[in-house]
Amino acid sequence: MTTAAPRDATxxxxxxxxxxxPEATAERVNLLGMSRxxxxxxxxxxxxxxxxxxxxxxxxxxxxCDDFAAMTNLSRALREKLExxxxxxxxxxxxxxxxxxxxxKWVLEVEDGxxxxxxxxxxxxxxxxxxxxxxxVGCSLDCSFCSTGKQGFQRNLTAAEIIGQVWVAxxxxxxxxxxxxxxVTNVVMMGMGEPLMxxxxxxxxxxxxxxxxxxxxxxxxxxxxTSGVVPKIDKLSDDIDVSLAISLHxxxxxxxxxxxxxxxxxxxxxxxxxxxxxLEKSPENRQVTIEYTLIAGVNDQxxxxxxxxxxxxxxxxxxxxxxxxxFPNSGYETPSRNQAVRFQRxxxxxxxxxxxxxxxxxxxxxACGQLVxxxxxxxxxxxxxxxxVQLDAP
Length: 394
Ligand code: SAH
Ligand code: SF4
Fold this sequence. Notes:
By secondary structure, this protein is an alpha/beta fold. It has helices at 14-19, 36-45, 52-62, 76-85, 147-150, 159-171, 199-210, 230-239, 253-259, 268-281, 302-311, 337-349; strands at residues 6-7, 28-30, 86-87, 92-98, 104-109, 115-123, 128-132, 136-138, 153-156, 186-189, 222-226, 243-247, 288-294, 317-323.
């Protein structure tokens, strides 16, 4: 691959690709985030057959290949044409580290020099590896306990930058129980950013995660986590079938307004009704996951457990308890282990088995809300934070 000025083509529509001609294309288009339809349009536009799209997808997503010269089932003439017109460009790896517990983290440089982080969390004796993927640089929703929220919103990631995180992790040589198994078995959209505030690019990237010529993950192994953008939850069930996780954190509106300001727009009842509608429209998803970050003295008392069980009464769901991960000047504290277990027991008595998700990868800053990244961005604005939690996905 040469290094001529690239253009991120994930924003390129099929019609844009279709109108691209060798003469008109001064910059090379990035094929990585393109859907099959967009790739087909691209190949037709350069006088090639549609089926090349499938070949290209397999090279990019199955083989992790970014070098047209190595794509040996394409003719030499086509390879040379692609070299001139296109490129396969994932995010640059700025840092790669692994934790004592096997968690792997990458700091990735995206288009404008911003950094995002992605974390691969092994579980189940190496049988499952869950990749925690970011959707935005920063976040506009400003949840009071979230370090990403504290840094404000910078920009949406493109589909290429989102799927690029899966691409980077999939090309890596992570330890596996069975080397024939793919490095990434599950994806959770729980990194930096609110995925439903970057709807089109997130859905496009998730399509590639599900698609056979992409990463071939089953819908139950791709989970979108949201703080509750209700209209987009409704839209999501029309567009794609993935598992849904809801960041609830409080079961009364007064407290949730404080923790998750978006609650002032879409309150708890409105949000849980949207979850019920989602499940109705998506029969394979039998339940939603409720994420509940436990914050000492704020939402970890018996009355909170009671309220939680009450509001969730009619919703098929499972609850994940996440002890708050501290960060400087948050003003909040993590509950003691005893308190978290007590909260878990109260829920248990009310009929809910709720695992406590322990922080993973602390020694490489990869735990929830702690992904500060010791690396600063180029503009030296602010250290970037992301958080990850591991889900009890199949
Ligand atoms: N914006 C989406 C997804 C990213 S946040 C959402 O809010 O769901 C992923 C999860 O990490 C969310 O459940 C979020 O509430 C949780 N989280 C954020 N900051 C945290 C912290 N400091 N400690 C523990 N969990 C945190
Ligand atoms: Fe954004 Fe999610 Fe953090 Fe809230 S918890 S500020 S929605 S990333």
